[in-house]
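pasting for ref
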Amino acid sequence: MTSIARALLLSIAMLAQPVLANTEVKGIKFTDTLQLASQPLQLNGAGLRVKVIIDLYAAGLYVPKPDTNAANVISQPGPKVMKIVLLRDLTGEDFADATVKGFKANNSESDLAKFHAKLDEIRAMMLDFGPVKKGTVIQIDFVPGEGTHVLLDGKRRGPEVTGDDFQQAVLRIWLGPKPVDADLKQSLLGGK
């Protein structure tokens, strides 16, 4: 085989290989795919949470099938992952308070009453984080039929919080009508 033919075959073979790229937000890399509950998930989008002028965290949202419509993403069947990497030191109290505030802003009064105990569970779990250092990864796994799991640097914290409808209510923190950060919402939905 000539060297030109070998080079051509090698080039074709390289083109046939999947290209695994990462999305980078403020130096934090989000892989294009990950796996949860034996199902491959795709990065729907990633962005930056800013409060006033302070970068708080980078976040990536993983879903079975990417979509640019918030309601479709929230109601989409299958597992989902919200991956958050802190860009500054925070406390569990900071994170818990922001979670409760975002939850209340994006869910109806009836949902707030319905999910009061579950929201308290999540809040207590986050308060238990204590001081959380820059670079810490907080991952919220949504597994239908099983529950919402919170992981801190890969270690599961607290019990799962059951209820598929609760998972949708939590996702509204970032994707609801009054998201914690409108630019982050757009980024999580695949915008720039």
